[in-house]
Amino acid sequence: MDHKVKVGFVGCGFMSQLAHLTSFAASSKCKVVAIAEPREKLRQLVADKYGVERRYGSHTELLNDSEVEAVAAFLPDNLHAPVAIDCLNAGKHVMIEKPMATRLEDARKMAALADKSGLKLMVGYTHRFDPGVDKAREVLASGEIGAPTFAHTYYFGGDWICGLKSELISTDDPRPQTDTSNIFPDWLPEDLQRRYRFANNNLVHNYNLLRYMFGDDWKVRDVQLSSGAIMVAMSFGSMPVSLEGGAISSRKWREGLEMYTENGWMSIVMPPPLLRNVAAAVSYESIGDRHEFVTPNCEWEWAFKRQAEHFLDCVMEDRQPIASGADSVADMEILDQIFRVYCGK
Question: Which of 30, 260, 316, 328 is deepest in the core (most CB within 10 A)?
Fold first, then answer.
């Protein structure tokens, strides 16, 4: 390969180390040329592990590095918008973790800036890069099981680390303090902030997946909240959809999407996020001309690795990511509507 994208990494925390940095470092399409991390000991140890020579204490220092073409920034939620905006203003392509932002207006600013600058802004929705999800979309598009008539998606979590914590480099550096005074919508009641953050950080994968499967003709119809769970009634076109989420203590991971169709049904069971090289388990039944129950095999691939490769492809080939900033604004709109509907606004 004649050209490798020169990537600057911002953040050396949990997800950066166990999912993102390892994926970018393993790619033949890029070279990680710089790392920015305010925790000095952690910065040095992680940079040493990956052989990265240029090391900065902040993302603003890294952005002054003229060799950096693209930035992979994996940080606390409230830093996604300001750091991405700084990257775009500095002329750097940028990939961030989900959620895109913590407030809808910030997401819109980010998307508008990326559009104006012509730079790539990508949000880390790993379900869009799962081989099982690809297979499910292929089956649905083929018409084999007919059009969907009802869908149900759920997220209750469980053990998502899969033993990888033993690979984590940790130090006694004090955790960086960030400003969290402006991370919720002004109109959101304080007693809903925790559940808003859960929906934005965790459940966002599920309504993003609904859009990926069924398009953008959506509406939030009704919302029920309890201290430990949320249930949202939505529609996609004329199709009713239920969205449910909460938290459990379990060694099992509980997340998936089920749909019922004109000629059968389909189930997508998501793997734990850090279970490497295991795709979503897809099964479906077709009762059309040939009645059969199918459980297709998928390649041994990891969504995080495929996601990194996609971002690099988009930078090199000047094309929009499938999880672009412009597309991801819709997820912030769904979040906004969920809590406005609940609040009667």
Answer: 328
With tokens 């000629």, the residue in question is: 263
Domains of the chain, each with CATH number or no CATH:
5-126+306-321 (3.40.50.720), 127-173+190-303+332-343 (3.30.360.10)
293's tokens: 């129950």
H-helix segments, the chain: 14-15, 22-25, 40-50, 59-63, 77-89, 104-117, 131-142, 193-198, 204-214, 303-317, 325-343
Strands 239-246 and 121-124: unpaired
Are the CB atoms for 230 and 224 separated by under 8 Å? yes
Going from the C-alpha of 263 to that of each of 26, 146, 147, 149, 284, the distances in angstroms are: 42, 5, 8, 10, 10
**Can you read off the two tokens belonging to residue 168?**
């984590």
- Summarised one tens digit per residue, pLDDT across range 218-249 is 999 999 999 899 999 999 999 999 999 999 99
Angle between helices 325-343 and 204-214 (to 10 degrees): 120
For residue 185, cis peptide bond before it (omega within 30 degrees of 0): no
